[in-house]
Design goal:
single chain; about 425 residues; mainly alpha; hpI Integrase, Chain A; three-stranded antiparallel beta sheet; two-stranded antiparallel sheet; 14 helices; about 5% strand; globular
């Protein structure tokens, strides 16, 4: 696959140059070269990025996207401040056909990569870059150059990640719905389309299997709480002892986007499991400490001690559980399950569901969770087809007195009715 400049995109292999490293100071993650020296243009951008109250996980995600971009520029021999839209276009084309680099080859997941799980009907991640990864890469690179071109006004002359201007003659927001927020005037060029995904819920019978497969009261309390309040995993992991209102059956979370505090109702069952888990700890955490801790202990040089449960440790819980059940459920499926349960409850309005989910706009909640149950649709259509077959097999009704069967056949184009 050659482009106009004669560049063989399919033959390009990204070098193993640089890495993403944890850093001390205001910027928690940086991109460093082979000698461990931070890349100056990226560090300057990330400093501005962190000033906007950005989470550490977002900084880490941006670092990996920029590291890939830097490796790409080295592969095509282009300086970062001389990149053009052609380099962005070629990177998108390369990512669409390239295999993602891995630190170690797949073992147990080699057979399932890219396939559909027969139980959950969810697709396993494959070995190639997903459309969402490509779109995220384009957005990060565009934001990086936007900082240098618009804010700093030095370095590159243009932003290589251009917007699609094929509809210049149309007035921006000409047909904007006043009930919805204003979006960007144009989408990023070369962004792949995203198929609309319906939320996947865990059916009640499968949920019983999931809950029975858990090995500790901590995991039972955590999953039971999430399936009742529909919080995001990071929001739930941030709960402290002071954030649990036992008498009111509420927990307080810090919303992922707005950082606002919000009380959410939880089931009585989840609080029972939470009490059992805290009793298992023996030494319960202080009110200002997180309530979720790992049962595994790690050596920090001063002896073994408990560690707060983080997202990676929670993913390990799901890996063990999915391996035992032959599934590929995730923590986010619990949020979808709780949301769909609430959306189908006639006593709750869609506004109620929006508040619990923390969506800024009601349209977001309605578009995602007002979906028809696929199984029920298939069952109704099968009933419809079966009824048609039964009607076709019934003998025709006798002709009423006073009517000639031959005349009715001519009139209706068939046999007697």
């Amino acid at each position: 696959m050659f482009n106009d400049e004669g560049r063989d995109i399919a033959a390009i292999r990204l070098p193993g140059w640089g890495r993403v490293a944890r850093a001390e100071g205001l910027v928690p993650w940086l991109v460093v070269d082979d000698a461990g020296v931070p890349v100056a243009p990226i560090r300057r951008y990330l400093t501005d990025f962190v000033a906007g109250d950005t989470s550490g996980s977002s900084v880490r995600s941006y670092c990996y996207a920029l590291l890939r971009w830097w490796r790409w520029l080295r592969a095509v021999d282009v300086e970062w401040n001389k990149a053009t839209p052609a380099e962005v276009r070629d990177l998108v084309l390369w990512m669409k056909q390239a295999t993602k680099p891995r630190r170690s080859p797949r073992t147990t997941s080699a057979v399932t990569a890219g396939t559909i799980n027969p139980i959950t009907r969810k697709r396993y991640l494959g070995d190639r870059y997903e459309p969402r990864t490509i779109r995220h890469s384009n957005a990060v690179i565009r934001a990086f150059y936007e900082f240098w071109v618009q804010d700093v006004r030095e370095g590159p002359l243009i932003n290589p990640v251009q917007l699609d201007r094929r509809h210049r003659g149309r007035r921006p927001h000409a047909h904007h719905n006043p009930l919805e927020p204003f979006g960007p005037e144009g989408k990023i060029r070369y962004n792949p389309k995203l198929p609309k995904r319906r939320p996947r819920e865990i059916p009640d019978d499968r949920w019983n299997d999931v809950f029975a497969g858990l090995r500790s009261n901590r995991d039972r309390a955590l999953l039971a709480m999430d399936v009742s309040c529909a919080a995001r995993a990071t929001e739930l992991l941030g709960i402290r002892g002071v954030d649990v209102a036992w008498g009111d059956q509420l927990v307080r979370v810090i919303r992922k986007g707005t950082k606002a505090e919000q009380w959410l109702p939880v089931s009585a069952e989840s609080l029972v499991w939470l009490r059992l888990y805290l009793a298992d700890l023996g030494d319960p955490p202080a009110p200002d400490e997180p309530i979720w801790w790992t049962l595994r202990r790690r050596d920090h040089g001063d002896g073994l001690r408990r560690q707060p449960l983080d997202y990676e440790a929670l993913r390990a819980v799901w890996r063990r559980l999915n391996a035992a059940l032959g599934t590929n459920w995730t923590m986010h499926d619990l949020r979808h399950t709780a949301s769909l349960r609430m959306a189908r409850d006639r006593t709750l309005s869609m506004r109620d569901v929006q508040v619990i989910l923390g969506h800024a706009h009601l349209s977001t909640t309605a578009d995602v969770y007002t979906v028809e149950d696929e199984a029920k649709v298939l069952r109704r259509v099968l009933d419809h087809l079966a009824e048609r077959e039964q009607r076709a097999q019934k003998p025709p009704a006798p002709v009423a007195a006073g009517y000639a069967a031959a005349d009715l056949a001519i009139l209706f184009g068939g046999g007697p009715r």
